[in-house]
């Protein structure tokens, strides 16, 4: 991967921002914020780089929806999205995480365990045919559902948990507000 990143740096404007973007993905995956990659950055600074990563198959862009309804595409918020890397092994290598640390249950991955787990779930969803994946959050950001999947005319909310505590206040609140859905 190191040689590949160096070639990208030589051939495009992506340069160090590519590496910084991937490192951001190793942290808890919230709405993508350009300023977290480079201080003062705006969408225009990265939109071509992000599109290049998507077109190259290195990154998945998962848009947010503000409302829940069929088709989810109609409720897409074009300004809010999450980015995921195509493979958790690659994510681990880029973040210099030792493979053994990923498999051992200890405090080594306290901050990144959720990001790795969420990234893994997304890569599995992407493999499913005719599944459209989004995420949901309210504008006040107190409620977020990791994934909303639209498949065969149904919407299924998916909340990803990396720990043994499987409670999810967000999912319970979401289902209470959308009782026609099954989580």
Helices and strands, with pairings:
Layout: H1 2-11, H2 15-25, H3 34-37, H4 43-55, E1 59-65, E2 76-85, H5 88-94, H6 99-103, H7 113-127, E3 132-137, E4 144-151, E5 154-158, H8 169-177
Parallel strand pairs: 1-3
Antiparallel strand pairs: 1-2, 3-4, 4-5
Descriptive labels:
8 helices; 5 strands; single chain; alpha+beta; 5-stranded mixed beta sheet; 40% helix; 183 residues; globular
Helix content: 40-55%
Strand and helix order = HHHHEEHHHEEEH
Distance between the termini: 37 Å
* Strand composition percent: 15-25%
Which spans have pLDDT < 50 for at least 5 consecutive residues? none
Overall body shape: globular
Please count the beta strands (DSSP E, at least 2 residues each). 5
Largest β-sheet summary: 5 strands, mixed
Could you give the order of strands across the largest sheet?
A: 2-1-3-4-5
Describe what this molecule looks like in 3D:
- With 183 residues, the protein is α+β, with helices and mostly antiparallel strands.
- The chain contains eight helices and five strands, in the order ααααββαααβββα.
- β3 and β4 (144-151) form a beta hairpin.
- α1 crosses α2.
- The longest helix has 15 residues, at 113-127.
- The termini are far apart.
- The model has no long low-confidence stretch (mean pLDDT 80).
């Amino acid at each position: 991967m190191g040689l590949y990143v160096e070639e990208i740096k030589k051939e495009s404007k992506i340069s160090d921002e590519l590496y910084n973007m991937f490192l951001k993905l190793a942290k808890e995956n919230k709405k993508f914020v350009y300023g977290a990659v480079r201080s003062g950055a705006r969408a225009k600074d990265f939109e071509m780089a992000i599109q290049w990563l998507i077109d190259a198959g290195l990154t998945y862009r998962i848009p947010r929806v503000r409302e829940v309804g069929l088709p989810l595409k109609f409720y897409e918020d074009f300004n809010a999205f999450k980015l995921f890397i195509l493979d958790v092994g690659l994510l681990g290598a880029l973040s210099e995480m030792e493979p053994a640390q990923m498999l051992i249950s200890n405090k080594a991955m306290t901050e990144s365990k959720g990001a790795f787990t969420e990234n893994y779930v997304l890569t599995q969803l992407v493999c499913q045919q005719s599944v459209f994946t989004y995420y949901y959050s309210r504008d006040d950001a107190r409620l977020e559902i990791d994934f909303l999947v639209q498949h065969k005319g149904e919407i299924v909310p998916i909340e990803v948990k990396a720990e043994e505590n499987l409670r999810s206040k967000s999912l319970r609140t979401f289902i209470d507000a959308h009782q026609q859905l099954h989580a």
